[in-house]
Design a protein that fits this description.
mainly alpha; BetI_C; Tet_transcr_reg_TetR-rel_C_sf; BetI-type transcriptional repressor C-terminal domain-containing protein
Length: about 100
């Protein structure tokens, strides 16, 4: 029996992949969803930079895109190899590399 969390992740991965086609009924939804996520993470990273807490030469908007890419990639990898891929550990380790306070 699939884990409840897994079935939601599976649905998201399949739908977001299929919705890359402009003709797909969910295309506009996923386009806006990713725009909103990029705006959110860009705002977070910009605020951290303004407070001197961001330690990265990478622009906040690029970090936002990288963060979303990491989330999507980890979900897909975890769905393929649940016993090996440590989503939580990877999600925690990534921001520690440019926001040291996350590791505290």
């Amino acid at each position: 029996m699939p884990q409840p969390m897994a079935s939601g992740r599976e649905f998201h991965c399949v739908m977001s992949g299929e919705a890359t086609s402009p003709e797909h009924p969910a295309h506009a939804y996923y386009t806006e969803r990713y725009r909103n996520l990029r705006r959110f993470y860009t705002a977070v990273f910009t605020a951290l930079a303004e407070r001197g807490e961001l330690r990265s030469p990478v622009a906040p908007a690029v970090l936002a895109t990288m963060t979303i890419s990491l989330l999507n990639g980890l979900q897909a990898q975890w769905l393929h190899d649940r016993g090996t891929v440590d989503m939580a550990g990877s999600l925690h380790a990534f921001p520690v590399t440019f926001v040291p306070a996350v590791g505290d």
